[in-house]
């Protein structure tokens, strides 16, 4: 069996999704890529989390074709493949329907950066992508979901905003590996809750929600504290 | 004892309701029908979930009369029987007072389809039924609850919208068997949360909630991806 | 040691409060009365739930004086005693600061009856009491909390509305025994959530919250289904 | 190894943060000071909670310099040190990004005192500090976070309002030791939820949120019941 270690990592990343309360039933998937081999491992489609094993993971090439595995890969495989092709620094991808992030996606709204919780991982907002057109959906839905995300990040660094909301759908997040993508999925759900409540508290007090936005110099500081060349958070 | 296997399935479905956080105390019930025998199995009324056993389930005929069982069947038995009589494809039914779905029912509002989480299982909204009249309530409350649901689905396919909200009361869901009805009860509670939050986020940003509605072609795509003759989600 | 069985029941009722998520730290208390002996048993004040035992419960007379027990009784003892003196059908009392019921109390609002979940246990609203005056607070705060509740129920049957909200404070509930009072505390928190969300959904759709009120004949039906002489819910 | 007992206490306080649902991943820290030695013990930076041990805690002097420990101390160490220097009664400090308290901080709003849950621990509001200036952030971010808190409490008793919100960031709480600071962190998150909901219920009913404020004499009574010389809550 190919890519034993990677299967194990992707299996663990998938199992972490329900543990963090991000996934009900089978509504999520995680993948990670082996850049040298040009192959990625992804969850099979519609299989219960307690029936998953490292062996049941599916190996795909960069066009999303199955290379090894008895089961169908996640129905979102073409989206994962598209992002791996477009962004060479991305090593892992996660998709969920986590409750509050999905609510933002349904409202068609980017999550503004109201504070340091978000600024520690996102250099700015969690952007909401434009909706797919009728043609894009009918022609190649999952591939075009990926294309719309890539389009939405033109001129942006996907590693500095490691996630987005697909309109009327839900969040996709990514990172250097599958575990990092899971981490960012947790961040997105958490800031989705905080920012919803921050806005409601502005409304209740008759204030403009825009006044809640964190100033740029605070975002700069927090992001750089963790990610810049002079990062000093954690154990380096 | 009759219908041993069916009793087991209905028992499991009922036990899944508190596991999914849909039921407090005894506020829910699940049933499943054996179409050949014209009998359905349902939870007894007002019995604690940790005292339930497959043997304590009650067997009823299609008029809701007890055929086997020492305990009274759920007080909602006449509603279940009514739906089984009206809809021959329905194999299982669930009723809960799950918190947020019940809030929509209390507000007297259908849950609009704002995204793919709902579109994967509901071809459109989760409809809220009209309130029962004074006469309907006094005459035959539980039976007329069923009648009002059947009336609300005239011209609709109950398998394409496998659930509804009974006004000022709470959700009823159904499916090919009791397990599917439980699944749809989870979906309804989950989309109830997402859609509440999506609307609040529209309000906070000064946008119309109607703008959040998913376009019809997205609903078509998602529903057909799972349910049409060309379905490609999961392992077929 | 006196009232061994009652101590056990009150202990269990107290332990059920954190299990149902109604109490953080020591922010709640339950009591039950032995009407023949004119004594009630109540939780000691400010003791951690995991240090409670049936033996640490405190026995009080109907003026709230300690009859047996090494520890101080709950600081709300005078409120419990006051309600026991005023209402002879009440056998158990619970006070919590459960999150959403407390929010209604802080808003100074009664919980309107928007649906059958509430109507099954409350014949109408969960009423919010008037605030205590400066004099009432300074003179005898806990006793006057009881007096204000009794005043608020003048002309009402406390067994048909087994709970209330004390303004800027939180819910008190009661019933035939401590277990019933706990049950009603759960009901109040649950309907507090449902009704908050029902109102927000009315606001989001531009509807009047009053339109969400359940019609009187539905309330009559549900309450009588469980409580009237012709009750048919559960196993009788 | 120095300060063995204190390391144990700080370790326990840190472990209590995720247990109370206040912390995701590594987003929180607790410390406690030994006033005689002029040293405090704090969590290491960015280490997973399940890898923490009493031995991995870091000992710092009152300028925040590491005195003993192989790991970097929390990135918020300079804030803790600043508060210990300014306030000699404070024995323990906690910082979290707990969801709803952080939402208030993001909205830039103090939590008004709407009820007794807050009044039992805070003599008035949970104040939100002014935002840091660009210069303060760039020059010495964590130290100036402490300075802004100290400035915000000028003329106030930090032991009577044992916590605050740092704008666009999150809550800091304190107390006589680390355990008390954890306790107050729970209180702040709990009243953040209650007060958010109380305000939404005022808005839904068309009332002014200011009307929900608890009267001063109620605040006096509750705070003094637990903290004044005539306190009578708990076992003294």
Automatic annotation (TrEMBL), chains A, B, C, D:
EC number assigned by the record: 5.1.3.4
Gene Ontology MF annotations: aldehyde-lyase activity; L-ribulose-phosphate 4-epimerase activity; metal ion binding
SMART domains: Aldolase_II
Enzyme class: isomerase
GO BP: pentose catabolic process
Top-level division of the source organism's lineage: Bacteria
UniProt cross-references to Gene3D superfamilies, sorted A to Z: Class II aldolase/adducin N-terminal domain
Xref: SUPFAM superfamilies: AraD/HMP-PK domain-like
One Pfam family matching this protein: Aldolase_II
Keyword terms: Carbohydrate metabolism, Isomerase, Metal-binding, Zinc
Catalytic reaction(s) noted: L-ribulose 5-phosphate = D-xylulose 5-phosphate
Coiled-coil residues: none
Segments forming domain Class II aldolase/adducin N-terminal: 8-196
Recorded GO CC terms: cytosol
Cofactor(s) this protein requires: Zn(2+)
InterPro entries the UniProt entry points to: Aldolase_class_II_sugar_metab, Aldolase_II/adducin_N, Aldolase_II/adducin_N_sf
Family listed: Belongs to the aldolase class II family. AraD/FucA subfamily.
Protein name, as recorded: L-ribulose-5-phosphate 4-epimerase
Organism: Parafannyhessea umbonata
């Amino acid at each position: 069996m190919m890519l034993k270690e990677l299967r194990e990592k992707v299996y663990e990343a998938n199992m972490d999704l329900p543990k963090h309360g991000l996934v009900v039933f089978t509504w999520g998937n995680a993948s990670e890529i082996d850049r040298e081999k040009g192959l990625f491992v992804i969850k099979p489609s519609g299989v219960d989390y307690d029936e998953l094993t490292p062996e049941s993971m599916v190996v795909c090439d960069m066009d999303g074709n199955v290379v090894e595995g008895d089961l169908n890969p996640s129905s979102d495989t073409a989206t994962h493949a598209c992002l791996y092709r477009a962004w060479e620094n991305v090593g892992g991808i996660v998709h969920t329907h986590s409750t509050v992030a999905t609510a933002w996606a349904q409202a068609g709204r980017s999550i503004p950066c109201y504070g340091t919780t978000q600024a520690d991982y996102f250099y700015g907002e969690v952007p909401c992508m434009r909706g797919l057109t009728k043609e894009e959906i009918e022609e190649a839905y999952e591939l075009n979901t990926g294309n719309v995300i890539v389009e939405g990040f033109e001129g942006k660094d996907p590693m500095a905003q490691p996630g987005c909301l697909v309109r009327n759908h839900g969040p996709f997040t990514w990172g250097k590996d599958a575990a990092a993508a899971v981490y960012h999925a947790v961040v997105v759900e958490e800031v989705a809750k905080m920012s919803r409540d921050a806005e409601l508290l502005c409304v209740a007090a008759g204030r403009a929600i825009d006044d809640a936005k964190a100033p740029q110099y605070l975002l700069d500081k927090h992001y750089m504290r963790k990610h810049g060349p002079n990062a000093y958070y954690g154990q380096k």
